[in-house]
Amino acid sequence: MSLAEPLIIGMVAGEPSGDTLGAHLITALREHLPNARFTGIGGPKMQTVGFEPLFPMEKLSVLGIVEVLRHFPELLGIRQQLAAHFLHERPRVFIGIDSPDFNLDLEVKLKRAGIPTVHYVGPTIWAWRRGRIDKIRRAVSKVLVLFPFEPPLYERAAVPVAFVGHPLADSLAKFPSREVVREQLRLPSSARIVTLLPGSRVSELKQMGDLFVATADIIAENVPEVLFLAPFVSRQTREMFEQALYRAESRTRNIQVLFGHSHEAMAAADVVLATSGTASLEAALLKRPLVITYKVAPITAFIHRRQTYLRYIGMPNILAGEFIVPEFLQEEATAENLAQAVTNLLFDATVRQRLEGRFANMLAELRQDTATKAAKEILPLLGGAPA
């Protein structure tokens, strides 16, 4: 195939973390395929590097089983339209980025039609729903995993797999120190700083916003000099948090609400309070002590508990194989519990130092030049494209 001839690569990313993965991967693939067209579903970061969206990514960014069921007809319609589009356009490869409940069914259809499929970010069969491995085998030509403990699980099920590391480790490895970031943000070098990360999605803010405000109020009452940073990725989520402050008639006036700059806010902190998910991993890779919390609809939590195999859900604890940071989930996620855990870390320099050492080891293990490795795994599937 001539490099001058356009080559279509289909992609679907359903949430902000997938948007970041997709943007890095597109950049790495363009080094080998400068004329490739990338199309499907992706967010602003993917679009910045030339991705052509067919549907807005926000349509897929729903949280929890109950929430997915509420939006199921619309999601099903989008998936059917995407399948029809890709079966007509026939991309040289389709790459589903995370969002397995949406992407795996789409991948099954495309693979059955002879289109190579890659699932980028292995579904969490190590945590829950191991029965999905049969569907994954039918859906993918290869699965790319981000964590070193995952390949044996897929190899035992005869699923082609490659460990590519985590792109966050690549991007955060040389992030400025806490002191430098505080200077950049014009924050006092000696302040006690807590960064609040109640979620990047609207559905998360609905569940977590009021809880984080109540937690901040208790901490501020016990540690009057504390300064809070609260970064948000969109105007809507920022406004939702500000509404939570208003509803609570919050006594805490030393909260700086930021637009973006989440990594800077984490790096500047003494302690991070984060919802479970990508944010908890980001905090660990920035070597910042943290407390993890999460709440979903009660029926969603009930179903998850019946299908979960691990005692913990935060990625720092999963990578460590033990509880190294506190987790407070569902009914245990109270403002009192969270405030106590954060305050304990604020005043325990020994524990913070020990955590920073564990996180440094995680960073080294996950730093693999992920986008380049992922691209090299995908190129041979293109059939005639340069590898």
Structure description:
By secondary structure, the protein is of the alpha/beta class. The chain has two domains: 174 residues, Glycogen Phosphorylase B (Rossmann fold, 3-Layer(aba) Sandwich); 196 residues, Rossmann fold (3-Layer(aba) Sandwich), CATH 3.40.50. Helices cover 49% and strands 17% of the residues. The strands form two sheets. The chain has a seven-stranded parallel beta sheet, sandwiched between helices. Strands 10-9-8-11-12-13 form a six-stranded parallel beta sheet, sandwiched between helices.
Reading off the top of the CATH hierarchy, the class of the largest domain is best stated as Alpha Beta
Structural class by SSE content: alpha/beta
| Inertia-based shape | globular
CATH-derived architecture of the largest domain:
3-Layer(aba) Sandwich
CATH topology (level 3) name of the largest domain: Rossmann fold
Termini Cα gap: 12 Å
Percent in strands: 15-25%
Average pLDDT score? 87
Give the biggest sheet.
7 strands, parallel
Q: Main sheet: which strands, in order across?
A: 3-2-1-4-5-6-7
How many extended strands? Answer: 13
Summary tags:
13 strands, 49% helix, 6-stranded parallel sheet, Rossmann fold, 7-stranded parallel sheet, 387 residues, alpha/beta, 18 helices
Could you give a quick summary of the protein structure above?
The protein is α/β, with parallel strands linked by helices and 387 residues long.
Topology:
Layout: E1 7-13, H1 16-30, E2 36-42, H2 44-48, E3 52-56, H3 64-70, H4 72-89, E4 93-97, H5 100-112, E5 117-120, H6 133-139, E6 142-145, H7 151-156, E7 161-163, H8 167-172, H9 178-184, E8 193-197, H10 202-222, E9 227-232, H11 235-247, E10 255-259, H12 262-268, E11 271-275, H13 278-285, E12 290-294, H14 298-307, H15 315-320, E13 327-329, H16 335-346, H17 349-366, H18 370-378
Parallel strand pairs: 1-2, 1-4, 2-3, 4-5, 5-6, 6-7, 8-9, 8-11, 9-10, 11-12, 12-13
Helix pairs in contact: 1-18, 4-5, 5-6, 9-12, 10-11, 10-16
